[in-house]
Amino acid sequence: MPVDFVHHLTIFTVGFVASAINAFAFGGSLVSFPTLIWLGLPPIVANATNTAAVWPGSLGAVWGYRRELRETSPQVYWLIAPSIAGALAGAVLLRITPADVFDRLVPLLILFATLLFAVQDRVQRMLNLAPEHRGSLWFTAAVVFQFFVSVYGG
Length: 154
Known about the structure:
The protein is an all-alpha fold.
């Protein structure tokens, strides 16, 4: 088999697997991003490629969980704003970060994502307080947390 075919098949397969992981639990980038680096893409290009490649799986997850989203508190929809702002800030940071600095940050970013993935259930339980226990402090913390997670994702 030609190397190009194996290369493209690997990218397709890993992209499919990462999107499937994202549809159920998120964290698919922990598979796809390192694979893109392993295949020889520079880390900044791998990051941008990975972000562009896995978002359709996220849209599929939103579609798949549309019934559950109808039951979501309207307050949660306010997290869209810090998500967009954080993603844009992260994209700008990626564009202005020198490649050698980003190369050194990659292991820390992967560690951060792994830790975030590991504590995901605990964070969700903590944020899943009964509505009467959700005050302005809870919402402010959720907005700040969402912003920084989105900076990472951006």
